[in-house]
Amino acid sequence: MCVQVTATVLCSDGAVAASSVALNAVSAALMCSDIPWQGPLAAVQIAHDASDDDAGQTTIQPTSEQLLDCGLSGIFVGTADTALLADFQGREVSKKAMRSALQAAKAATEQILRSQHKLVSQQTSAKPVKPSQGYSGCDPAAEASIMAIAVPLVKDILSDGNADMSRVQRLDALREAKTQVVEKLTRQGVYRFQALRSVGSGCATQTDVDFVWQDVQSMVIRDMMTKDNLRPDGRGLIDSRPASYQVGVLPVVHGSALAGQGQSQALVTATIGEADDQAKSEGITGQTSKQLMVQFGDRMAAAAEASTSGRDRIPDPVRQRVRRNTGRMLESRLAAAFPSTPFPFAVRLNVDVLAADGSETMAALCAASLALADAGVPVRAQVAGTQVAAFTASGHPHALDWNQSNGRSSGTDSQQDASLYEIVIDPQEAESSVSDLLLQLVGTEEGITGLHVESLQKGGVPFEVVTAALSSGWQGLQEQHSKLGDIKAQLARHVTNKMGRVVVPQDKVGKLIGPRGAVINKIRSDTGSLLSVEEAVEQSEDATVHFFCPDTRQATAVEQAIRGATGVDLFEGSVHTVKVVRLMDYGAIVEFPSGSSSLLHISQLSSTRVKRIEDVLSLGQELQVKVMGHDARGNLQISHKALSALFDAAQGDRVGEDKAADSPPAMRPYQAVNARFRQSDKGSRDFRQQKPRIIQSS
């Protein structure tokens, strides 16, 4: 049976999220219908103050402003006795605060459940309830014969005696065992082609084998966990697989990192962009932009799959939704790694899962955090994650039916069976795909930053299982951070800071940008850097120019270019080397190394009079100028003549040192200029001597 429910948001004030309201509306609609299901369920969104004591204040259905101010927020979905889904984001909160938030959310769902029951009781006429069709896709009469053959084969493959098997070897062995099941059924005369299928005859077809095969693996692994405390790879229940980390694996990109968790591997590349490169989207609350974008890729080749055909190769719908939302989950979890100060650039992370054998999402999270640091982002703390799976003794309902058909008793009360469960840290794909609960815990060394709980069992799992899995996940998270110790030390030694900032006056921002962005674009093209201007709120305050240099050797050049373009380094008395870019009758336009230009007046070229500018300067010529200040309009005043006079004065000082001791002291710069003028031909005459008057007689 396939049921499709559509939730339509008719209006929204933009303050409260509509996700929890939509889930409650769907539950109420199903309760009032004749569709069989194990409802009702309730969804609640909370904001918790994240205090370490159990008396922390909790806000139900918080507004967007309250979500920004709180230390822990999230959504919880559950029934009266079980938990179905939980997703929380926190600011490095403790395990106790996270447990307190879960308990508060669970208590808040009780009122919503009572409201739904009250709505059903108000119906004037009860609708007939359609009986459940049970196990669709498999002939119940043929199920027992298939499982009797398949269970011993699967047990032999998944036993701890084959702990050295890789995932590919295990998949090949399971496919071969599946073929043996068909061969044995054929020899027994109970196998039929699909066209000759007869429901209730006890004969099995390929469709029946395909549908039972996953249930056989689920039952075998569950029995190993809950009864024998064994795992297919020989580990203990709380033991995690070896982890490996590498940074800077790709030489061209801004940042890259490779993380491995057992046989699972994830490669993440980081690309830094300007603020205008942020991803913009239009939603019900208006236009939003994301500073961090994560593109998650889960290839079929990573799971040793060539196609998506066959029930054993298609993950269940819950896991499909998890994979589609993995990118958004990583974005929210990596928020704890971003700098505490406003970050002026956009970041894009490309995640490629190279090999998938369980916990590949957590490996991608660790690699993403390391790639940010390798790209030069001043991360606040490294983020790690661990995955936990829970196996309850209740198991799959069809596995219980097989147990009863073989004379073994199994309880029907889910609460009674829930007392027998086992928690497994860092599950493999063979374990997580048949588990009853998956929990992902993310955080730094200081505390938890994210929690995702998902029930894979129909009807959910008891709330006590979630709290027990949280405690085991905290233990696994601390172990992951201990494994990150060596790579953190390597990052501290080798990764250089590729970002910087320059504080400039607010009125100089226009000069940095230049006409139509000519100056700032020239700095970008010459240095290969990214620039972001953060203008001041008040005119009296200074603006900040942030820059990112993929090549750290260009960082100094970028900073000098910014200072030169804005005039921060063009203070009175500073000397700079400029290049002539244009000649005019009254002077020359010279260009500073930063790209800014200024007028060098013809009167500031030399101590002597210059008739034609072409006599002393040419295009492309480089010379030194001295900053003399600014005029009334704020234009920069530069001079080459001032440097020439100082140079001549210095030369005169050195010559004077060789003279006799009774020689007069070194002259000042203006005195040297006057003395040189008197010694020239034009200065040979004494202008102070009066000219003789010629008197003409009558």
List the helices and strands and how they pair.
Elements (H helix, E strand, L loop, with lengths): L18 H13 L10 E7 L9 E3 L3 H6 L2 E7 L3 E12 L1 H27 L18 H19 L8 H22 L17 H23 L14 E5 L7 E7 L2 E10 L5 E5 L2 E5 L1 E7 L18 H8 L1 H8 L12 E10 L4 H15 L9 E9 L4 H9 L8 H4 L3 E5 L3 H4 L4 E7 L4 E8 L5 E2 H21 L1 H10 L4 E7 L3 H5 L4 H10 L2 E5 L7 E7 L6 H12 L8 E10 L2 E5 L5 E5 L20 E9 L5 E4 L1 H16 L12 H11 L19
Parallel strand pairs: 10-11
Antiparallel strand pairs: 1-2, 1-3, 3-4, 4-15, 4-16, 5-6, 6-7, 7-11, 8-9, 12-13, 12-14, 14-15, 17-19, 18-19, 20-21, 20-23, 21-22, 23-24
Describe this structure in words.
The chain is of the alpha+beta class. The chain contains 19 helices and 24 strands. The strands form five sheets. Strands 1, 2, 3, 4, 12, 13, 14, 15 and 16 form a nine-stranded antiparallel sheet that branches. The N and C termini lie far apart (138 Å).
Low-pLDDT windows of residues: 307-316, 394-418, 650-663, 682-689
Give the rounded overall mean pLDDT.
Answer: 77
How many distinct helices?
19
General form: elongated
Distance between the termini: 138 Å
The biggest beta sheet reads: 9 strands, antiparallel
* Fraction in helix: 25-40%
Assign the structural class, choosing from mainly alpha, mainly beta, alpha/beta, alpha+beta, or little secondary structure.
alpha+beta
**Tally of extended strands?**
24
Strand fraction equals: 15-25%
Q: Please compute the radius of gyration using only Cα atoms.
A: 38 Å
